[in-house]
Amino acid sequence: MSADEITAPPETATRTTPAWWWTALGVLLVLVLGAVTRYLDKNVASWFEGSDLAKAIEYPVYAVVIGLLGNAVLTATGLRDRPAGGFRTEFFIKTGLVLLGASINLKVIVTAAGPAIVQGIVLITTVFLFTWWLGGRFGLDDKLRALLSAAVSICGVSAAIAAAGAVQAKKEQLAYSASLVIAFALPSIFILPAAASALGLSPEVAGAWIGGNIDTTAAVTAAGTIVGEHALAVATIVKVTQNALIGVVVVLLTAWFAFRVERRPDAARPGAGELWRRFPKFVLGFVAASVIATWYLTTVGAAEGKAVIGVANDLRVWFLILAFVSIGLEFRVSALREAGWRPVAVFASATVVNVLVALGLAVLLFSGFTVE
Questions:
Q1: Residue 264, SS3?
Q2: Which bin fits 78, alpha (ψ -120 to 50), beta or left (φ > 0)?
Q3: pLDDT tens, 68-119?
Q4: Contact at 8 Å (CB) between 346 and 150?
Q5: Where along the chain do its domains lie?
Q6: How far apart are CA 103 and CA 99, in angstroms?
């Protein structure tokens, strides 16, 4: 054995390992960590029965934390970048969002939620534009501004994911936005029901306020349940309405970034082909899934329809768990250091505006409204 062979670094031998092997190992790692996440999501609440906090924590929290732990282990062992080809964040996210469309019944929204549609359009427009403006005043990157604006004005993590695809944001920016959504949604579960009671709001108005303001569907469900059954029904309709508007916002963001934000002064004006190239095609799948689900539910019994949509929802949760695990595995702390305190200030300010505008709209549109 030569001296060169004796002193060669240990990683030399791994250089001959085929790339596909590391990619397959990365996929396997994501699946295993995803299974751990799902197990915690299903069991933690029962382990800490009676704890409102345990019930309120959603799977994105477990998934991101577990992914970050895996990230730390890979970094410590010097293997972080090798299995990265298996961390298919974009694929998992887009598949999960297409499946999200199956849970949105357009017929219910159109026929039974007129006030919710008005509230959703006004609230999203107002809060999105305020967040975008304030982010500009604080000097935030345009892509991060888009993610924060979509997250706080529409439906939290799902909207941030969709916006990230439209503006081609960095994964670190998406992880940062998702973290802010979760950090602000958890206390809202307890604060808003208490505030609704103190203000003497009717269950329907309280539900509309909760559904329009809290940024994640699970947190909306938890807060609505605290207020009561009627509040939960209205909160769900309002939240589903805002979820359905994700596609509209994504189209507008895609057009804005293609024609204004990223267009060079010396470049030719981009045409429709450029807009189509940048447009996230999964949005079409999202809309198609919603239309198909709406049609399907009119052709079968309620029990059968609920069972089928339940399967789609379960698959959606699985894909989003894998997406958030991948985000944790790919996350780099340096991106948070670069972001600093300004995104937090923007998100907090936008949340206050969202609370006030949503309350005003809920009182205006849902006073006297009753759930049949």
A1: coil
A2: left
A3: 898 889 888 888 777 877 888 778 877 887 887 787 766 655 554 578 888 8
A4: no
A5: 27-366
A6: 8
The pLDDT tens digits of the residues spanning 265-305 come to 555 555 566 556 656 677 678 778 888 888 888 898 888 88
Contact present, 349 and 149 (Cβ < 8 Å) = no
313 vs 4: CA distance, rounded Å: 57
Query: From CA 351, how far away is CA 74, in angstroms rounded?
Result: 36
- Label residues 170-184 b or e (16+ Cβ within 10 Å = b): bbbbbbbbbbbbbeb
Burial of 44 (0-12, 13-18, 19+ CB in 10 A): middle
Rounded to an integer, what distance in angstroms lies between the CA atom of residue 274 and that of residue 262? 12
Is 0.90 topped by the overall pTM? no
Number of H helices, E strands in the chain: 19, 0
- Give whole-number Cα distances, 198 to 56, 195, 214, 363, in Å: 22, 5, 18, 15
130, 125, 121, 157: which is closest to 353 by C-alpha? 130
What is the torsion angle, in degrees rounded to the nearest 10, for the CA atoms of residue 342, residue 344, residue 349 and residue 352?
A: 180
Residue 52's CB is within 10 A of a number of other CB atoms, namely 12
